[in-house]
Request: fold
Amino acid sequence: MPTRTPTPWRTVLPAALLSLLTLLGTGLPVRAAEPYAGPLFDAHLHYNDEAWMGPHDLTDVLGRLQRAGVRGAVANSRPNDGTRTLAGPQAAAAGVAVVPFVRLYRHRADYQNWFRDESIYTMVEQELATGTRSGPYRGLGEFHLYESDNANGPIARRLMQLAEARNLVVLAHVDDRAIELLMAHAPRTRLVWAHTGIGGVAIERVHTLLERFPTLMGELSYRPGLTGGDGRLSPEWRVLLTAQPERFLIGSDTWINPRWSAYEALMAEARQWLGDLPPQAARRIAWDNAAGLFALPQPSPVPTPPSAAAPEQAAPGARHPR
Ligand SMILES: [Zn+2]
Reply:
């Protein structure tokens, strides 16, 4: 899917109207909605060393995905061994479509230097050439830029161009300024904005960037202001997600093991706020957008989960450990 077709909302939803709708939305009574009950695609999953070498072996994590109704996931890990473990026949047998991404980090020190480190580019090329048991890598990331200007680092630029040339999806944890810089390197790249601005950039700015870059999508884990203390979708996000459901994805961001322990609860939280959206919009954000992005088939009937299931099923609404 090299390009996205223009969508009608872009002609009918200028920023001023979005603001007006948001204003109106704040005055609307919140209906008591049922949680979204369909399939989920987790677009931001890590399976790092400390998870699979520690308490979360492959059987554990696949059981969690199954119990949460997650039927597909982007997998990436530091280093890439975890992804190669996850992207195999056991996940397929569990009814989970694994979409492998190449992580740019061999170890934590690479977070700070990958964007100017030639050896990272070489490692990415080698990973792409090797692939996984589930097939070729489909994307690059998640990578982080803690300073926007590092988006102009030579390896950041070349990796964006590589992604564009090979039709790879990029998962980037960056700020709004770095989105502009990255897209300037390779304007047709399909870029998923991890957390859609973890610093809480204004929702109007999110809307502006989505309008400007048709291949940009937002992943919503940890997004400040998405929900209120009650776990319900905030009025302004309800307006934006209802207007542009084709531009967003959900994710767990299992960056540390406590996120794995809370996995089912995190997905229950997503189901809760997805339930505040019109059903078609919820389904797009929960599954259909990822299915389109990665050309996934409709999920098959759910295989029977392991019978020793759910010893740690956490209460819905449990707070995220940070
Ligand atoms: Zn992450």
Remarks:
- Residues 198 and 223 are 5 Å apart (CA to CA).
- The pocket of zinc ion is lined by residues 44, 46, 142, 194, 253, 255 (CB under 6 Å).
